[in-house]
Amino acid sequence: MLSAFERLQQSLKRLPGLGYRSAERLALHLLVEKPESGTELIELLKEAVNSVHACPACGNLCEGERCDICSDTSRNPDLLCVVETVPDLRSMERAGAYRGRYHVLQGKLSPIHGVGPEHLNLESLKSRLEADGFKEVILALSNDIEGEATCHYLQEEIFSPLQIPVSRIGFGLPSGGGIPYADATTLRSALDGRRSYD
Amino acid sequence: MLSAFERLQQSLKRLPGLGYRSAERLALHLLVEKPESGTELIELLKEAVNSVHACPACGNLCEGERCDICSDTSRNPDLLCVVETVPDLRSMERAGAYRGRYHVLQGKLSPIHGVGPEHLNLESLKSRLEADGFKEVILALSNDIEGEATCHYLQEEIFSPLQIPVSRIGFGLPSGGGIPYADATTLRSALDGRRSYD
């Protein structure tokens, strides 16, 4: 029978990004070094578990009927940006370069991990495309084989039949990145994505 | 006014070893990706907050009247190993090389961080030394200036007056460590700690 401390440590260890040592350190912090932080975390987690859910329209985090982005009338209603996950959406928002709507797929197609189209948030994507009259879709999926396959699937099955213009975000050298530090795949993407210079 | 999600993220960010991104990732995992892990964590934290406290004798984690080590009668009652923190004690236990008792100081002397003798777990150390008849004390404090100062203070103020034999753990090249990878201070400790070879 594990002690309460060990059960807590094991549960923390299962969280993303935490290993044995960091889970031990967190558990000690929450229980011994700063016990008030343990009590605070219980309260905040309870509150968040009860109030946060996925937005029924776009899949973003949401504490009411629609998420902040879906209910923001100042955003461009013509543009829809499709992302894989909520962290991706939040990174796009932090960049501050996009003012349209989003749709969160909650993953990408991955036969190896057993993720098929039925696991993605596609039903509401279809109904939004039919009802909301978007004029352009931007695919902001990752630059890997699974992202590629997902884009291909979406284009064939969803966007093409509806004849909506679709683009995919650019790939290449990251900002501040020098050629010597870029890997071969990035350089290949950069060459493929070259634009006429004038 | 912050949302419940942001309040949770900020509370996670204040925990040791977590930054903005890892706190966001954890919060999303606990609320959206695996909501059952959020509920589980609430339960385990509550349980642990209510049952785990510092052992009144040695300062180790404890869920009853005395910790597992203090109440284990099979351990050598003559040896006392003084460590800074509970993680230090747990590392010593994992190494499996010591079978005596422990005393956790809950820190080390550090004038820069405002930690004086009054902040360390010294009262119960003194009463244990007087009552429990230890025959040897091993100082397992860190190999830095503050560890050094703490050892010096303990020796002058506590151990010397009681005439208890005291040793400090060895310093030098770590196991598997090659000379070229050791920093200058380690090599200096290793030279200082040389032992006759026969």
From TrEMBL, chains A, B:
The keyword Transport does not apply. SMART domains: TOPRIM (SM00493). It comes from the Bacteria. Keywords: DNA damage, DNA recombination, DNA repair, Metal-binding, Zinc, Zinc-finger. GO terms for molecular function: DNA binding; zinc ion binding. Residues 78-174 form the Toprim domain. CDD domains: TOPRIM_recR. A zinc finger (C4-type) spans 55-70. Pfam families: RecR_HhH, RecR_ZnF, Toprim_4. GO terms for biological process: DNA recombination; DNA repair. Belongs to the RecR family. May play a role in DNA repair. It seems to be involved in an RecBC-independent recombinational process of DNA repair. It may act with RecF and RecO. This is Recombination protein RecR. It comes from Oceanipulchritudo coccoides.
